[in-house]
């Protein structure tokens, strides 16, 4: 999970002109132990690809909650979560599984951590989201260009 979190921090740092280059958003450093703990918790049951997908979903939800002009694209969001359903179907029915439930808890934690980051450095957080929204279709927000929403 560190991959997406690290990329977000790097993007935030690169868009923050008022901070010194050697000062990597110290308020976010306080949240790093929570991200590390989440990473440890999820390594045993999520692949790297699943971790990245879950973080993208959590980031999209946090941004839509904090930043003006962002709305989650429900169809893309649901479709992304449905990819996890195939794993849930493979869980044992004898009560030994709980993979899907743990994945949902991880999503909730990641959404909470992104929300905390977004509230701590909202200007940089929303600028980073705007940059992603304008340069990529690899996100879960509605676009002004409806053709982009189909990707």
Summarize the structure.
This protein is mostly helical and 151 residues long. The chain is 68% helix and 0% strand.
Question: Could you please describe the fold and organization of this structure?
Answer:
The chain is an all-alpha fold. Helices cover 68% and strands 0% of the residues. It is built from 9 helices and no strands. It has helices at residues 2-15, 26-29, 32-43, 48-66, 74-82, 85-89, 99-120, 122-135, 146-149. Helix 1 (2-15) packs across helix 8, helix 3 runs antiparallel to helix 7 and helix 7 (99-120) crosses helix 8. It is globular and about 45 Å long. The two termini are 24 Å apart. Mean pLDDT is 80; it is low at 13-21 and 146-151.
The tally of helices reads: 9
* Strands, total number: 0
End-to-end Cα distance, whole Å, is 24 Å
Helix content: 55-70%
How would you state the average pLDDT, rounded?
A: 80
Order of helices and strands: HHHHHHHHH
- The low-confidence parts are 13-21, 146-151
Structural class: mainly alpha
Sheet with most strands: none
Radius of gyration: 16 Å
Strand content: under 5%
Which descriptor suits the 3D outline?
globular
Question: What are the salient characteristics of this protein?
Answer:
151 residues, mainly alpha
Topology record:
Elements: H1 2-15, H2 26-29, H3 32-43, H4 48-66, H5 74-82, H6 85-89, H7 99-120, H8 122-135, H9 146-149
Helix pairs in contact: 1-8, 3-7, 4-7, 7-8
